[in-house]
Amino acid sequence: MDATATTATAATPFSTLIRVASHEKHDEANAAPFMSNLLGGRLGVDAYVRYTEQLWFLYRALEGASGALREDPVAGPFIQNELARTPELERDLAHLGGADWRTGLEPLPATAAYAARVEECAREWPGGFVAHHYTRYMGDLSGGQIVRDKAEKTYGFARKSDGVRFYVFEGISNPAAFKRGYRELLDTIAADDLEKQRIVDECKRAFDFNGAVFEELSAEFPLSA
Ligand code: HEM
Predict the structure, then answer these.
(1) In the chain, what are the domain boundaries?
(2) What are the φ and ψ backbone dihedral angles of 30, each rounded to 5 degrees?
(3) Which residues, including other chains, have CB under 8 Å from residue 31's CB and lie 6 or more apart?
(4) Region 137-161: what's the mean pLDDT?
(5) How many angstroms is it from 5 CA to the middle of ligand 1?
């Protein structure tokens, strides 16, 4: 075996690199008081609705760009119809807020900034778009399932039904296998080491955007004493 082959074999797969590099950020997101208060039943369903509205603004940004990126060599392979969440969010919000749920709806400033960054990446930097894609969809397929379970119990939604459809991937029968496939896409991404590092940095930024949205939600829904 020549030296090049040995190095290639020993190199850390990109899926591992991005998971390990964002681990600390993940723990921070996981510990956000808004999430623990929400899922611990210390906030009303209005807070859950406000959070779901933020997701709608975000996924419109992520998925609005999908068509244009489908043929892109870097981002294109990640765009898979079964991941699309916007229709599910719209069903959840119609259930939660009634037919005119969109009327007067505005994103929180942190959500607007997050969505604007996703749109900017989609326009100008496919690698950055992948960072945002990974952070949201791999999270939804993983911790999202814990969130769904708790939300069903806390707010009385029927299992995998209106109100929590965002967390239900009808087109993915085996999430563990899907995630394995997704990691393979990461491992074969058309990017050199420098670009991979930039993608990791953008992933950390994506976690920070999520943290900022949680902060603003906490401010809007303080715990009553
Ligand atoms: C209540 C909050 C959360 C819980 C309980 C949670 C829980 C988890 C768990 C258990 C996993 C590992 C699943 C596995 O190994 O397959 C995971 C993975 C992940 N989570 Fe979260 N999470 C939460 C919030 C978040 C947030 C806010 C984000 C970012 C938006 C996020 C992004 C991710 C990502 C990207 C992964 C995939 C890591 C990888 O395998 O590459 N999570 N989460």
Answers:
(1) 26-220
(2) -60, -30
(3) none
(4) 95
(5) 33
Q: Which residues contact 15 (CB under 8 A, 6 or more apart)?
A: 182, 183, 184, 186, 187
pLDDT (average), residues 133-141: 98
Structure token digits, residue 22: 């964002």
| CA–CA dist 53, 101 (Å, integer) | 9
Rounded distance between C-alpha atoms, residue 89 and residue 109, angstroms: 20
Residues in the chain: 225
CATH number of the 26-220 domain: 1.20.910.10
Q: Where does ligand 1 bind, in terms of residues with CB under 6 Å?
A: 19, 26, 29-30, 35, 134-136, 138-139, 142-143, 146-147, 179, 207, 210
- Protein residue with its CA nearest to atom 13 in ligand 1: 142
State pLDDT tens for residues 100-131.
999 999 999 999 999 999 999 999 999 999 99
Q: How far is the CA of 21 from the centre of ligand 1 (A)?
A: 13
Residue 170 makes CB contacts below 8 A (sequence gap 6+) with 82
Helix (H, G, I), strand (E, B), or coil: what is residue 53? helix
Residue 72's pLDDT is 97
Residue nearest to atom 20 of ligand 1 (CA): 139
The region that residue 41 occupies, defined by phi over 0 for left and psi between -120 and 50 for alpha, beta otherwise, is: left
pLDDT tens track for 8-42: 445 899 999 999 999 999 999 888 999 999 999 99
